[in-house]
UniProtKB/TrEMBL annotation:
InterPro entries: DprA, DprA_WH, DrpA_SLOG, RuvA_2-like, WH-like_DNA-bd_sf
PANTHER family to which the protein is assigned, alphabetical: PROTEIN SMF (PTHR43022)
Domain DprA winged helix residue range list: 314-367
Superkingdom classification of source: Bacteria
Annotated protein name in UniProt: DNA processing protein
Organism: Acetobacteroides hydrogenigenes
BP GO terms, sorted: DNA-mediated transformation
Length: 378
């Protein structure tokens, strides 16, 4: 992989300037007329921009951050990491709607971050068996109802790890949002889980390499978890905790918040119960509750015998491309489908997953796909 974007070093550099946030960074770009122009301004001009103080102006002007950005590009190229700038077409649509979304995301994986249905599942690191079981039941229930859902969480111990594992178990793509750079996995106990997620999911962060998993970084990454999703589900949480911070952020984005109730005597149900009591979250006990809260329709139809195929539906333009590619062949690899359709690999993977759930295509060994004969009879 070789990233050819000549402006990438400026995009990275602006994000790593000390004391600059995403809102100020976007303001700088707007005032200067472009990301490259930010670093060509005289210091006096920078100081006239609202929100830009001496520290930020000095760092931009002396341009030491550009050298650090060049080293980061070497890392991205070496490990096949894709940077998504906030005006790029592959930048996640839901996150783009948030005022404080990062101007740059670092991405490694195969899942589309703009999946049709996205749930953030968060909770305490000290998850109980009840919380883990509830997490499993919710995701399994959604899968049984035929939903194709991207599950987002923070790859921490407890509920986060349970969400990722059960997403994989249910056949859902899952994304871990990190509070550090992609040069490490924290906690290290989740390293194998992270590797498994890359097969049908992704790891994302807005931190460069060498960033340590400090407390403030976890709070900062929570805005990405909430911003990527249609809704945030809090499975278990004490009366104070990072999951409740994520829920508050989701509320500020006008996104739905759901919470799983628990016994009043349980420490790690008190946060969920409080959210429900204060009408900050809808009560969720089952997959049906998620459907009702988000107005999702079950896409599977059950008959007297086994589960039947999804009712036929109109194909999107992208789906029709894939159908046309598969129509005259016995099977085709996902790589060839992506190349022939002109779609990105993450988009192709996400679209094929939705089509598989809807009975339009079937997956075969070797990452190959074929049209479903039940959906397209000969």
């Amino acid at each position: 992989m070789c990233i050819s974007d000549p402006l990438l070093k400026y995009k990275i550099a602006l994000e790593i300037i000390p004391h600059i946030g995403s809102i100020t960074a976007k303001k700088l770009i707007a005032y200067c007329g472009g990301i490259g122009e930010v670093f060509n301004q005289p210091k006096k001009a920078l100081l006239k921009i609202p929100g830009v103080g001496e520290i930020i102006a000095r760092e931009v002007y002396n341009q030491r951050v550009l050298d650090r950005a060049e080293r980061e590009i070497e890392f991205l190229n070496k490990y096949g990491i894709t940077p998504f700038y906030y005006t790029d077409p592959d930048y996640p649509e839901r996150l783009k709607q948030c005022e404080d979304s990062p101007i740059l995301l670092y991405y490694k994986g195969s899942a589309s971050l703009s999946h049709q249905k996205v749930l953030a599942v968060v909770g305490t690191r000290s998850a109980s068996d009840y919380g883990k079981r509830h997490c499993e039941e919710l995701l399994r229930g959604l899968a049984q109802k035929g939903h194709s859902v991207l599950v987002v969480s923070g790859l921490a111990h407890g509920i986060d790890a349970a969400a990722h594992r059960n997403a994989i178990k249910s056949g859902f793509p899952t994304v871990g949002v990190l509070a550090h750079g992609l040069d490490m996995i924290y906690p290290s106990a989740n390293r194998e889980l992270a590797k498994e997620m890359l097969g049908n999911g992704a790891l994302v962060t807005d931190f460069i390499t060498g960033t340590q998993p400090e407390r403030n970084n976890f709070l900062r990454r929570n805005r990405i978890i909430a911003g990527l999703a249609d809704a945030t589900i809090v499975v278990e949480s004490a009366i104070k905790g990072g999951a409740l911070v994520t829920a508050d952020i989701a509320c500020s984005y006008n996104r739905d918040v759901l919470a799983c109730p628990g016994r009043t005597s349980d420490k790690y149900s008190q946060g969920c119960n409080a959210l429900i009591k204060m009408n900050k979250a809808a009560l969720v006990e089952s997959a049906e509750d998620i459907e009702n809260a988000l107005n999702w329709q079950s896409v599977s139809v059950k008959g007297n015998a086994s589960q039947q195929l999804t009712i036929f539906r109109d194909l999107s333009k992208e789906e029709q491309k894939i159908v046309d590619i598969l129509r005259n062949v016995e099977k085709e690899s996902i790589d060839t489908i992506a190349y022939s359709s002109g779609l990105s690999m993450p988009s192709t993977s996400a679209i094929l997953l939705t089509m598989e759930f809807d009975g339009i295509v079937k997956s075969l060994p070797g990452k190959a796909y074929a049209l479903s004969k039940s959906y397209f009879p000969q």
